[in-house]
Structures are given as C-alpha cells and as structure tokens.
Amino acid sequence: MIVKWFIRLFFRTLRRILGPILLLNEKLNTPKGIVRSPEAQQVIDEATRNIVLYQFRTCPFCIKVRFAIKRLSLNIEVRDAQKDQGHRAELVAGSGQAKVPCLRITDENGNVRWMTESAVIVNYLDERFA
Ligand SMILES: N[C@@H](CCC(=O)N[C@@H](CS)C(=O)NCC(=O)O)C(=O)O
C-alpha cells in the first residue's frame, strides 16, 4: 500500500518537473504520419471510431502512445483523465483503476475491452493499423 503510494508520488512529481519538457519534445518531434488514399483513410477512421484513449497530457507513457497514434495517422478520441473528473470516473469504472494510458475498444457487438500498458497498446495499434 505505502509502496504504491510512493510510486504514485514519484510519477506525479516526475510529471510536474518534466511535463513542460516532455510536451515541448512532443511538439518538436511528433512524427509526420503515414499518408493513405482518402478511401483507405476512411476505412481506418471507421475502425477507430470506437476507440478512445484515456490519458494524462504529461505522462511519458501516454506520449509514447500519442506518438504511435500520430505515426499511424489515426483519428482516435483522446480523453484527459487527469483534469476531467468525468473521464477519470469512466476510466476507473471501466478498467478498475486510474492508470493511464488506457485504450477503450468497443467491438461491433458492443463489447468493451479496456487495454492498459503502453507497449501493449502500441503493439495492438501497429498490428491492426500499420
Ligand atoms: N507500465 C505502464 C506505466 C503507466 C504508468 O505508470 N502511468 C502512470 C502515469 S505516468 C499512472 O497511471 N499513474 C497512476 C496515477 O498517477 O494515479 C505503461 O507503460 O503504460
């Protein structure tokens, strides 16, 4: 319990200190993104309509996922679970924790899957959309 609290405090402090640097780095180094034909992009846009990313702006793991989203030219809705208490509540209710990044994927039958771990999320996006 206390270890968890310390880890949380560590990341919160890290985000506060490194946040502006990380955001500047993101601005300067955001990948261009693959270019698809309008038809192909439309198919991808349809597929990503049911995907939402819950994230914190200055979380390095979330930035990693945002980079992948840009690189793959995906129009995925991004929800701030740090400042927006409504989004945070959705995240906790759905995934069981306030851990980000978290991808909410709704399939064609309406089944919802909550995916955590930045490496797992990037891998999923690459496998599905690269
Ligand atoms: N191994 C995880 C680490 C994710 C992580 O530690 N996220 C932090 C934000 S940087 C978090 O959600 N902390 C919970 C909190 O601050 O309440 C990943 O790669 O996604």
Write up this protein:
By secondary structure, the protein is of the alpha+beta class. It is 57% helix and 15% strand. A 4-stranded mixed beta sheet has the order 2-1-3-4, with helices on both faces. α3 packs parallel to α5. It starts with a helix and ends with a helix. The mean pLDDT is 94. The structure holds glutathione. Residues 8, 11-12, 15, 56, 59, 61, 98-101, 117-119 line the site of glutathione.
Describe the secondary-structure layout.
Elements: H1 2-29, H2 38-48, E1 51-55, H3 60-71, E2 77-80, H4 85-95, E3 102-106, E4 112-116, H5 118-129
Parallel strand pairs: 1-2
Antiparallel strand pairs: 1-3, 3-4
The structure holds glutathione.
Residues 8, 11-12, 15, 56, 59, 61, 98-101, 117-119 line the site of glutathione (GSH).
Work out the count of structural domains: 1
CATH level-3 fold name: Glutaredoxin
**Content-based structural category:** alpha+beta
Label the CATH architecture: 3-Layer(aba) Sandwich
Strand content: 5-15%
Task: Please tag this protein with its features.
alpha+beta; 130 residues; Glutaredoxin; 4-stranded mixed beta sheet; binds glutathione
Structure summarized in a few sentences:
By secondary structure, the chain is α+β, with helices and mostly antiparallel strands.
